[in-house]
Design goal:
The chain is mainly α. The chain has one domain (about 10-60). Helices cover about 40% and strands about 0% of the residues. It contains 2 helices and no strands. It is globular. The mean pLDDT is about 90.
């Protein structure tokens, strides 16, 4: 069962700068994902968070 009543928290850590691949060095979202976040459905936000985790792991 999901917690559909709880808002999905943004991964933003207020370190906002894009690298050469257009990915934020703070939260690992692409510029498009950052823009999409504000209007995104919960499912889209979850997809973004999965992509963020994948990028974070790949960079370490």
């Amino acid at each position: 069962m999901s917690d559909s009543g709880k808002p999905i928290k943004s991964p933003c850590i207020e370190v906002c700068a894009l690298d050469d691949h257009n990915v934020c060095i703070g939260c690992y979202r692409t510029a498009d994902e950052i823009i999409d976040w504000f209007a995104a459905s919960d499912d889209r936000k979850r997809d973004i968070l999965v992509a963020v985790q994948r990028r974070r792991l790949a960079s370490s």
